[in-house]
Write a structure and sequence with these properties.
Arc Repressor Mutant, subunit A; alpha/beta; five-stranded mixed β-sheet; 300 residues; globular; D-Maltodextrin-Binding Protein, domain 2
Length: 300
């Protein structure tokens, strides 16, 4: 492999991740023409086309995807080496990238990051939030050291470090129009306006599977990947949503929402999972955080 100039690699990586040369230039504090020249120079060195330009920005070619994977592995290996140097000096520092489903964010900070950061102040974090599919992609591509997601599909590329059953419950405003009885059956839920996550989210995928299995459809009047929006929908007594209990512990504690068990085994199969890429050796900081993440409410 020919030598790769760090600035050329950075321009290529940033352009692909940002989706456009202009966005990459803004992030890097460079002129778009400078970013383009660096990518062109890298393509010349590699003797192949690395990105494709279109109306909606840029994306990597097949060759570019291979190079992207190589650069990420190299970056991870360097982080690991630096971590091992730190370990030799008995130092606890570094940066850990965590990919999480939005429903886990509150639990992540409350149950893990707050106490961990106090214990290891020299370790920093990058928290990437997205759907279950996004979390899986982040971990498999080694863009994230660790992932926390709901209702993951089994994948041999991923190692599950911790998992716990977290059944879905129907959530309504306490004392509101739809706070009728407990538990609720599927027929009753299907009559209530619902806010639900999209199918790319583990919860949305479970709901879709239940609808197909039982030949029914929820009254999905709002579809959103925002947990805050799902909660706001219910808080304003617009209907119900369906989430695991740990996502709304604070609202249940303060009496804002009521959780109704669904009288069907259909929503009992949800599982929260803490994952890493199979075979990847984690740096010291990520290994330390891994132990702390297992104390989250989602896994305890």
């Amino acid at each position: 492999m020919p030598d790769i100039e760090p600035k050329q690699a950075a321009c290529f990586l940033t352009a692909v991740q940002a989706g456009s040369v202009r966005a990459a230039a803004e992030q890097m504090g460079l002129e778009p023409s400078t970013v383009s020249r660096n990518i062109a120079a890298l393509e010349k060195v590699m003797a192949t086309t690395l990105i494709e330009r279109g109306r909606h920005g840029v994306r990597s070619t097949d060759a570019g995807t291979l190079l992207l994977s190589y650069l990420k592995r190299r970056e991870g290996e360097f982080d690991l080496l630096r971590s091992e140097f730190d370990a030799l000096a008995n130092m606890k520092r570094g940066k850990v990238v965590i990919a999480v489903g939005e429903g886990f964010v509150g639990d992540l900070f409350d149950s893990a990051l707050a106490s961990f950061s106090a214990q290891f102040p020299d370790i920093s974090f990058s928290v990437n939030v997205g759907s279950t599919d996004y979390v899986m992609q982040q971990v498999v591509s080694e863009q994230a050291h660790l992932g926390v997601a709901y209702n993951l599909t089994k994948d041999p590329r991923v190692r599950i470090e911790s998992a716990r059953a977290q059944p879905l419950v129907a959530l309504v405003r306490r004392g509101g129009l739809y706070d009728m009885r407990s538990p609720l059956d599927l027929t009753a839920i299907s009559q209530i306006p619902c806010a639900i996550p999209p199918k790319t989210f583990g919860i949305g995928a479970m709901i879709t599977a239940v609808e197909a299995k039982y030949g029914m459809r929820l009254r999905g009047v709002v579809e959103t990947g925002s947990i805050a929006a799902l909660k706001a929908f219910v808080r304003n007594d617009m209907g119900c949503t369906i989430l695991p209990r740990f996502v709304v512990e604070s609202e249940l504690s303060d009496g804002t929402l009521t959780a109704h068990r669904v009288s069907s085994e259909a929503f009992a199969d949800g599982v929260s999972s803490l994952i890493r890429k199979e075979g990847r050796k984690l740096p010291q900081a990520a290994n330390l955080l891994l132990m702390q993440l297992k104390k989250m409410s989602a896994f305890s």
